[in-house]
Write a structure and sequence with these properties.
Helix content is 36%, strand content 20%. By secondary structure, the chain is of the alpha/beta class. It has one domain (12-228): Rossmann fold. It has a 7-stranded mixed sheet, with helices on both faces. α4 (78-91) links the parallel β2 (70-75) and β3. The longest helix has 16 residues, at 160-175. The protein is globular and about 45 Å long. It starts with 11 loop residues before the first helix and ends with a strand.
Amino acid sequence: MNNSQPDFNSDFALHYDSFIRLAVPAYDQLFSMADSFFYQPKKTSSNLLVVGAGGGAELLYFSQLYPSWFLTGVDPAEQMLKIALHKIQQAGTEQRVKLHQGFVHELPADNKFDMATCILVFQFLPDDNAKLNLLKSVAERLEHGAPFILVSIYGDKDSTEFNKNFTAWKERFRSNGVNPEESEDVQRILKMPLISEERIKELLDEAGFCNIVKFYSAYQVGGWAAELK
């Protein structure tokens, strides 16, 4: 396994919920922010694709908010999907949620979704066509004009901006009882194949998305909303 990516089938899955809320300020508000870009395609029975659904936060939020929606969650990590399944079962929404252990390109291309999210997955993929191929796989499974939400850690790790943000980020962890110098989860950020915001927009455009706007920023975590051309 690439050492920039945690083992989501290990104990990391068990403390993911607490870690991600510390690492990403206003993490839970990301879902309501994403929803605010879903105004155009909302229908009585919309279909939402959730890329990186392990943990179940997006599935839980949207399945409870919209009782007539159908959701498909995709994630390669079995342990994370077990956590997601437990959450939606507790909420009683599992009959409207389909879980797929694997990857987006394995889903039928003729099954079109009305919108999609990809939250905190993109940063793990190298920019050797893996990032682009993921975006293309999502695009191929969306209706024309469908909104897409992408949230990712990003940036030039050699830049002053990144290093100032990362220093402040580490202080956030430290003030919450986590020693960032000893935390594998924090140090792993420096090993991720991160790309600039400009490159993210280039890849979105190449994959077939347009009207790209940045709607979220916290340290070096950014959120972009786009639409399929």
